[in-house]
Amino acid sequence: MVAFYASKNAELGFNPQPRIIKRFGLTSMRVYLSATNLAVWSKFKMWDPEMGGSGLGYPIQGVYNFGLQVAF
């Protein structure tokens, strides 16, 4: 079985400039998007290679999170 795991984890975050967040009475702010188990590409097409064994198990789920961290 040949599988290519493109990405297991990724996170993208953004911190606005301090002059912008001070308008809202904040000392810091971070907006982020994170993901786990993004994609798997494989030449084996009968089942997901991450299911393992005979392919009769449950597949691994992708998880996506969006967050906002603020400090006053």
Written description of the protein model:
The protein has 72 residues and is mostly beta strands. It has one domain. Helices cover 6% and strands 50% of the residues. 0% of the residues are buried. The model has no long low-confidence stretch (mean pLDDT 80).
Quick tags:
6% helix, 1 helix, mainly beta, 72 residues, single chain, 3 strands, three-stranded antiparallel beta sheet
Summarize this structure briefly.
By secondary structure, the protein is mainly β.
Across the major sheet, the strand order is 1-2-3
Helix proportion: under 10%
The global form is rod-shaped
Q: In total, how many beta strands?
A: 3
Quickly count the helices: 1
Pairing-aware structural class of the strands and helices? mainly beta
Rounded to an integer, what's the Rg over CA atoms? Answer: 19 Å
SSE topology sketch:
Blueprint: E1 3-14, H1 18-21, E2 28-42, E3 63-71
